[in-house]
């Protein structure tokens, strides 16, 4: 079985890297950090939409390219390398995937073309606070098509147009679509470690809500959506981890101490080798997840959890050790090291912390062994 990408997919990856290197240097990230009035780069968002990336996996019938999830994976990896300051993950990995998975024909025809065109930003609101999503923890309620409750933290919730909300209806959890620009919705921006991926507290008071998928199937749908998103997030994390390794290696070869490049010292060699090993482990698990996602394999739940865990650990370790390799200058604002460290921390939590996914992986393996 060949787990490698095809020549066409590798070409897409190469072209995506060229585009992002030309249009998304870290100066764009710094501009967003310095500008308190915006949480993302609207110009880059429009440019990415023009490239068709937002609709890479969306069917052509709904305005997308209809390429598939493997192409979306390679795009995600390049976005991670560029620490792109856009709400791509919330809109594409979560909202678009949820609508394609469980949306009615009318919902898909209404929402997917807007996502593909860059006219709509999405968000996913599943928890009332940090922690795993469980039936007992869901406190938001829907009655007669009106949603009431609070969700936090909601990634990109301060800029999103449409939210995917987990709430109870008739005592059972369901998924609902809520227009965040409509009545009954208030937002409160929350401070985050990475301001280029904002978060918000969303409060709903009798806000109009439209069910997505069958009634009472909210938790099952959330699990499926999060499995899909976990694979795509893993590729974004992998791209960032690889960039950190490249940065650390380049600095280790050019920085001299006691008349020698610091990369010639054993301590630095071992540090870089550890990053490489973690990255390759994450790549193997991410490729497995990409295969399962693209083929709809029953192994997706296990593959997604493994990819999520290994990619989260690899990116965090690579970002941390990249700063250490740079030494004192690695802690300064002028260096890009902190941009990757902040993004690594944000991505570790956006779909649940690694400990949550470790528990999910163990439970999935136990379920499989029992079967």
CATH architecture of the largest domain: Up-down Bundle
Specify the helix fraction band.
40-55%
Mean pLDDT: 93
| End-to-end separation | 25 Å
The CATH superfamily of the largest domain bears the name: Butyryl-CoA Dehydrogenase, subunit A, domain 3
Shape: globular
Per CATH, the class of the largest domain reads: Mainly Alpha
Commentary on this structure:
54% of the residues lie in helices and 15% in strands. It has 371 residues and is an alpha+beta fold. Strands 1, 2, 3, 4, 5, 6 and 7 form a 7-stranded mixed β-sheet that branches. The protein has a two-stranded antiparallel ribbon with strand order 8-9. The two termini are 25 Å apart. A hairpin with a 2-residue loop joins β4 and β5.
In short:
Helices cover 54% and strands 15% of the residues.
């Amino acid at each position: 079985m060949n787990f490698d990408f095809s020549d066409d997919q590798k070409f897409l990856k190469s072209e995506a890297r060229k585009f992002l290197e030309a249009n998304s240097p870290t100066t764009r990230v710094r501009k967003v950090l310095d500008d308190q009035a915006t949480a993302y780069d609207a110009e880059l968002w429009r440019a990415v939409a023009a490239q068709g990336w937002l609709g890479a996996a969306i069917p052509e019938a709904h305005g997308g390219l209809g390429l598939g999830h493997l192409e979306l994976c390679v795009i995600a990896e390049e976005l991670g390398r560029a620490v792109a300051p856009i709400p791509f993950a919330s809109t594409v990995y979560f909202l678009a995937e949820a609508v394609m998975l469980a949306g009615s024909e009318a919902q898909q025809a209404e929402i997917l073309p807007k996502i593909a065109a860059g006219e709509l930003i999405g968000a996913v609101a599943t928890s009332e606070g940090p922690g795993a999503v469980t039936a007992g923890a869901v406190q938001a309620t829907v009655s007669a098509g009106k949603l009431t409750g609070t969700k936090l933290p909601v990634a990109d919730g301060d800029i999103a147009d449409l939210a995917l909300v987990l709430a109870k209806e008739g005592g059972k959890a369901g998924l609902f679509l809520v227009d965040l620009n409509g009545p009954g919705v208030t937002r409160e921006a929350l401070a985050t470690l990475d301001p280029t991926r904002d978060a918000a507290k969303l409060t709903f008071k009798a806000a109009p809500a439209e069910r997505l998928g069958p009634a009472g199937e909210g938790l099952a749908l959330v699990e499926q959506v999060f499995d899909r998103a976990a694979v795509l997030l893993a590729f974004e994390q992998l791209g960032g981890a690889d960039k950190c390794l490249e940065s650390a290696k380049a600095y280790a070869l050019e920085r001299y101490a006691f008349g020698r490049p610091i990369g010639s010292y054993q301590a630095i060699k071992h540090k870089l080798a550890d990053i490489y090993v973690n990255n390759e482990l994450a790549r193997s698990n991410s490729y497995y997840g990409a295969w399962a996602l693209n083929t709809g394999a029953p192994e997706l739940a296990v593959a997604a959890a493994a990819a999520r865990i290994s990619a989260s650990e690899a990116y965090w370790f690579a970002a941390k050790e990249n700063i250490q390799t740079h030494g004192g200058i690695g802690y300064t604002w002028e260096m890009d090291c902190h941009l990757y460290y902040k993004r690594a921390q944000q991505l570790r939590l956006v779909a649940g912390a690694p400990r949550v996914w470790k528990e999910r992986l163990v439970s999935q393996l136990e379920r499989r062994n029992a079967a």
